[in-house]
Amino acid sequence: MTAVIHDIGYRRYDGPRLGRFPAALALARHSLRGAYGLGRPAKSKILPFLIAAIMMLPAVVSIAVMALLKQEAISYPAYMVTMEAVIAIFLATQSPYMVAPDLRFRVLPLYLSRPVGIVDYVGAKLAALATALFVLLAVPLTILFIGELLIDLPGPPHTHDYLAALVGGVVLSVLLASIGLALASFTPRRGLGVASVIAFYLFTSAVSAVFVGVLQSVGKSEAAAWAWLANPFFLVDAVQVWLFGTNPIGDGYPPGPWALVIVLVVTALAVLGLLARYRKAATA
Amino acid sequence: MNTVVADITYRAMLGRKRIWLLVLLPVALIAIAVLLRLIAGVNEHTAVTLMQTFAIGMMLPLLGLIAGTGVIAPEIEDGTIIHLLAKPIARPVIALTKFVVAASLLAVFAAVPTFIAAYILVRGESGVAWGFALGSLFGAVAYAAVFLLLGVVTRHAVAIGVIYALIWEGLVGGYVPGARKFSIQQWAQSLADQVSSSPFFTTDVSLSFAIPAMIIVTLGALWLAGQRLRTLSLTGDD
Fold first, then answer.
1. Closest CB from A88, A213, A220 relative to B49
2. In principle, which of A13, A175, A185, B123 could form an S-S bond with A99, CB 3.0–4.6 Å?
3. Domain boundary assignment for chain B
């Protein structure tokens, strides 16, 4: 008896193949939606939208204050430092979502069997998380700015501050996204990923607070200026101050471009670590 | 208490990546204490600042979260808890065992380093070291029970625990004095304040409130966790 191969009508795909870049873009778009719980169960939408709503509170209060008292309540560059804990919680809860399921269910080879390479995959995830963070910060800033324009305070609008805060937001988003993903990608467990990212934030902010306090109390204010930079939010604030001359939130930072240098070095290290992690995960 | 369950849980906690978080924070605390000793010398004010912001304010809730949820949540997440629950062991006993493991880990990784760090900074002065060690020990027990309960109740235990520790104890507790009454961190500080006589350290929750609250919360959380385990359903999300 001879074996017969039946033709059951499978057809090859012969439409256009978009290639590497659109594939990475689709992945980034999917991840960005996922960061806000879109395309996921209703339960996953609660936390990101709750956080986004909390992020809006200072803007709303500030607009009310501007409308009633005709004075500025919260300055644009101070927004991210004021809301640092909220932004950190968003980072900690959403960055494991970006990377953990793919690692846990070992689907990375499926991605990599397509035109998407490791660099594209990591780049797409980074871009998605950074965009999610930026949206989280930029939306309340923009609403605050629109509010200020509509209320028409005495004096010129704070356009310079607003734009400075947006650039600061971009720097902060890229920095936090790369650190958050690098930390979260080391474990396929979501809970542990959340814990390690929040541990990073709490650790740096506590170290910064303790050293600033102690160094100032012993009169070493020059060293205290450096201790501020241990906290990523104050680090980015220092970048804003150096680039745009905005009012510093801490009691003064070290002069010169050091904050920006630190941001660039830390981001580069985090991205390199992330790439190394995925090179290993892809072969496993 | 079931020693086999305890043994398995210890191995799961200490044998994986989780151990790094448990070790790194206390090591960092002691390193910072040494560094501060070199910068500022023997200084009670520094010691109290470090203990309040770092040891009790940051390390204790974080380690509590990692240990408290870590003893049970991963097993629920990947479904292996079913093998444990299928054994003829009373569910409340399982909860109690997991709690004892978490609390003992916290005693080693939170309370002992807290004592060492404070001792490096001030020696035995004003009972700061003993006070904070005791405070963090009792705080650890309460955190372990609460976060264990959280780990049984929800898949998002760590996220909710982080929100409690950061938003409620940190932000709200910073502005609203009433919120401090319902914060494990503050109860731990009240205990520490009772033992230490340092003038740099005051707390605003009275001991007569903190101790009963701590006991009620610990026992209540443990009992609830045991009850929840009896009717645990393994449903996936995400």
1. A213
2. A185
3. 3-230
